[in-house]
Amino acid sequence: MNITLNQTDSTNAQLKVVLEEADYASKVDQQVKEFSKKAQIKGFRPGKVPAGLVKKMYGKSILVEQINKLLQEEISKYIKENDVKLLGEPLPEPSQSNIDWDTQKDFEFTYAVGLLPDFNLPLDKSVDGYAIELDQKTIEEAYENIKRQFGKTTNPETSEEGDFIYGDLKQVDGEFESKTLIPTNRVVAGKEQFVGVKAGDVIKFDIRKAFGDDNAALAHVTGLSKEVTADLNGEFEFTVEKINRTEEAELNQELFDKLFGKDAVTTEEEFDAKIRETIKENYDREADNVLNRNIIDTLVDNVAVDIPADFFKRWLQVTNEGRLTTEQIEENFDKYTKELKWSMIKNKVVEENELKVSNDEVVSSTKEKMMAQFNMPEIPEELAESMNNYAQQYLQQDNGRNYINEYEQLLAEKVLAKLKEKMTVVEKSISAEDFRNLSF
C-alpha cells in the first residue's frame, strides 16, 4: 500500500492511495471464512457452506466492504501520523466510479482534500462588554409584571383602560372572523371605544389605525403571522362577550412563597433585595452572552486565514445531500464560513491551552440543569442516586448525542473564558433600560 499527499496550493491537495492484492487479500479471505460459518444456503448444513461458493455468490460485496474499511483505517492513520489539518474529510474523486470490481486486482483511489492552514489568533483586538446598572424604571416594571402575573382575574360588567376584552372579531368587507382577546393598552387610536363597553356591545374600527399600523400588535390580536397582517386593513367589528381584569397581587407572604419558596423571604425588604438580585443576575447573564458574541465576531472578522472555498462548498453539498441545495449553500456561504472560522479558532485555543472537559463535569452540569428545571436549589440526599441515573440515561440518549452536545458546550465555555483572559475587554457602564434598547 502506498499513500501520498500532493498539495496543489495552500488550501487544497490530492490524496492518492494505491492498493495491491496483497494489501487486502487476507482480509477478504478471512471474511469469506467467517461468512461461510454463518451463511444459510439451501442444500448445505449451517456452517458447512463451501468458501468457494460463498466467494462466488458474495465475493464482490465482501471485497468492496473490506477495501472500503481498509481505506478508512489507513487514511485516518496517515492523517493522524502526519498531523494533516483537514476541513471535514477527504472526498472521493468522480473517477473512482470506473473501477472494475470483477477483474481488477490492484486499485488506485484519489481524494480531494481541503487543508486548513495554521494562523495566528488576533488577540490584540479589544471587545466591548457591559456592566449593567439597575434603574428605578426597570425595578418598577418588574414589580408591575409580578403583581399582574400573580394577580387574580375578575370579569367586571364594564371595561376600563388596561382590561382585556374577549369577543368575536370580524372583518366587515372580508372573510376574516375569529374569537380573540384585545388588550386595551395596545390600542393606539380610538381607545375610548374600548372603554366603558359591556357584553353584547359592538365596536367598529379601522384595524390598522386602531393598532398604530403595528404588524406585531395586529398579529397578537388576530393570531395571524406578521407577514399576513402586513396586508390586513379596513373596517372591523368586534362583539364583546366578556371583560377580563387582573387585580394586582398583594405583596404578602403568599406571593413571597410562590416566587422564592416557603419562608425563603419573609419581609418586603427581603423581597425587594431578592427581586433586585434576580434581575441583576438575569441582566449580567445577558451581558455575558453579548460579550461572548462580541468576542466571537471580533475574532472571526479579524482572523487572517484562507479556507478552500470550492472544496468547502462541495463538502457541504456531499455531507448534507438532500438537505442543502447548491443555491442554499451559495446564499448562506458567508454564514457557513464564519462558523468554520470560529470552529478553527476554538480548536486552536483548546490545543494551545490544553483545555479539557472531564466526564464528571459533563454529568455534574447535566444534573444542575435538571435541578434548575425542577426549581431545586440542591439535590435531597434521598434523590441523589435517582438524579444521577436520570442524568446518565439522558446523556446516553440519541446514541450519545446528548453527551457530545453537553461536552461541546462546556468546552466552548472554557474557550470563551480563556479568551476573556487574553483579550482586552472594554467594559461600559449602562442602565438596564438603555441595555434593553441596544440592538444586538
UniProtKB/TrEMBL annotation:
Its EC number is 5.2.1.8. This is Trigger factor. It comes from Pontibacter populi. Residues 1-146 form the Trigger factor ribosome-binding bacterial domain. It holds the Pfam family Trigger_N. The keyword Acyltransferase does not apply. InterPro entries: Trig_fac, Trigger_fac_C_sf, Trigger_fac_ribosome-bd_bac, Trigger_fac_ribosome-bd_sf, Trigger_fact/SurA_dom_sf. It comes from the Bacteria. It is an enzyme of class 5 (isomerase). Keywords: Isomerase. GO terms for molecular function: peptidyl-prolyl cis-trans isomerase activity.
